[in-house]
Amino acid sequence: MTRSINRVAVLGAGVMGAAIAAHLANVGLQVDLLDIVPQSLTDEEQAKGLTLRDRAVRNRIAQQGLERALKAKPAAFFSRRGAERITVGNLDDDLDRIAQCDWVIEVIVENLEAKRALLERVEAHWRPGIIVSSNTSGVSIAKMAEGRSEAFQAHFLGTHFFNPPRYMKLMEIIPTEKTNPEIVQFMSDFFTRVLGKGVVLAKDTPNFIANRLGTYGLLVTARMMLEDGYSIEEVDAVFGPAMGRPKSATFRTLDIVGLDTFVHVAGNVRDHVDSPEERAAFEVPEFINDMVRRGWIGDKAGQGFYKRVKGEKGKETWVLDPRSMEYRPKQAVEYPSLTKAKRAQTPADKIRALLSEDDRASALAWKVTKKMLLYAASKVPEIADDIVAVDRAMKWGFNWEIGPFELWDMLGVPETVERMRAEGETIPPLVERLLSEGKRTWYDRQPGRIGHFAVTGQYRYIDEPKEKISLRALREQKKVVMENSGAALYDLGDGVACLAFHSPHNAIGPDVVEMIFKAADEVSRNWKGLVIGNQGQNFCVGANLLLMLMAAQQKAWDQIDQSVRQFQDANMRLKYLDKPVVAAPFGMTLGGGAEVCFGASVVQASAETYMGLVEVGVGLIPGGGGTKEMLLRNLESVPEGVQADLQPFVNRAFETVAMAKVSTSAVEAQELGYLRPADRITVNSDLLLYDAKQTVLRLAEAGYRPPAPKKIPVVGETGYSTLIIGAYTMRMAGYISEHDEKIAKKLAYVLSGGRVPAGTVVTEQYLLDLEREAFLSLVGEPKTQERMMYMLQHNKPLRN
Fold first, then answer.
1. Which of 293, 395, 520, 739 could serve as a FRET partner for 480 with CA atoms 20 to 30 Å apart?
2. Contact, 687 vs 673, CB < 8 A?
3. Helix 413-422 vs helix 360-378: angle between axes, to the nearest 10 degrees?
4. Is pTM beyond 0.85 here?
């Protein structure tokens, strides 16, 4: 049987259900979003003369869920247009719709009896082949399915999204003993490829993997804080980036999640484990219960462990003292170990630095880490079949840089176990087995493959799927063709090369530009095509602003002119290369990063690509071909052979660049004109380079030919006048400054084609020359240099 999922019913339109529906719509699925029927009318409904029989009333709760998802920040949808794929309804009138669906996911209240009752109703409309799942974060999947038919249970499993579903990578799949293994495999593949998730298989145990371990760690941390007299801000200083964790650390994370939710999750484990010691470990400290009673449950209540208050200098962050239960101003936290950790470059080096000192921060980090490592080892294979699932769950579900067993390897298993024994800790059987087998690490890393220590007592080696390309692994395999300080050219196999930036923040400087030329020449001679992509934090944040500012302050105009000209030429070399070039952007793809993508034959973008030409924020206009390309891309909307007014298309390009619009997704980048309709999108970033490589091969096999240079009609002086009138009006209304208007005039001059009659046809090089001249004139402006300096110092724009 060939399975596919095209239509999904989401039962429950609360925060999580509506957000799941949004992400399903993001990837092109049709969604039925259903919730309960209201029991009473709102004042607004009564004023309209509506009754409880009206569909608008009966669908109100689901409709409100959809509207909430549309307003969510960060955005739940790739584009607001995605909401058109969602049809709202209610569980009384529309439950029969599930018979037309391929998958039904239950997302209602975390109550076993309520879920059982709903599943009984679902089965009344269920047909064989429909997959049914629960998004529970901890209720037993097997108990939920009790009483359902054997056929239904074979199609039933747990599918636990993490919040927010669009952004959190982890997907815990929890099969029961009766779940058809083919369903488990199909859903694993579906979540990986279609929804972009990292899948781990979890056992049907309380809170599964990530929430079980994460909740344990949070509770241990809170107890250590109370026992040893630490403050909340001290704890968060230790368990943030210094420990390879998110900036929200421990207590800020709880404020985001909600203390009421946290207490419920902790209680679920406490009430369903047998060991008295483990039940005690999941007891919530009384001060947190007190906070919940007072309603101090975090961000949704306006206060939790932290709150914002008005001070003499505006809004200030205050923090709770858990001993007095009073708020006070947040205090700076300084320890030698934290200072060393901040200076370290990699997450591993930060953690080593934090644990290497003899101070209170280091002591707290060790005490909590020790307990966390021991607990994780004691839960395998109870909650997961292997250590890989545990590490991935914590990295993908809690955004840890390093999983517990990876961290243990980094610290040294024999050395830390010896210290733990000396401190009176009980060592779990899995750890004793590792050491008794003569192993010193949980992972056995070899060129091209990685083994993990299994409960059998041996390393188990699993080859990574071919779709998961690792540049780090390729480097270990000596697949670097050439490199310099800014970029490297890798052999991806099958005749495809990959140019990967590796400068700081992947910023574009002379070394990167040099490698673009070298890569283009090498690929033209010896390869089928080129991928431009990397596996850093972001694709590229733009040009090296510091180098540009230094040159401007030294009045090295010829040097700046040459640098900009070379970057323009490099992008044109890519555009007209005789082999296909596929850019694979992800994350921040700003300024020069976007301009590199514009030179590609096709873009294979990660769904989470935040693309924009942001140069006006530092007092410039795009100078590497971005201004020219935005004009071309907007004019492409004009049907060939049609005599259309070009001004609206030029206006759109002007507005996008002048307002420094940045897309919130690759889909929105297409809507803004940064990406073309034919450009492709990959939802799972792990597969991005593979998809880009396949796109290169398809283009090559189809007999790729570079585009022919086009002549471009421009709106000329009349169009320029139209654009600057708009800028003048905005300045007179106080929306923009005088310097903003000057930048807008320079941008308008380039986009209109300069002082030529409307309808004049020009070349790309002509527009590039205008673009470069405008860039050079602006970079010499004192106010532009002030903006550049402010951005470097504060990482936000100055509007002077």
1. 395
2. no
3. 100
4. yes
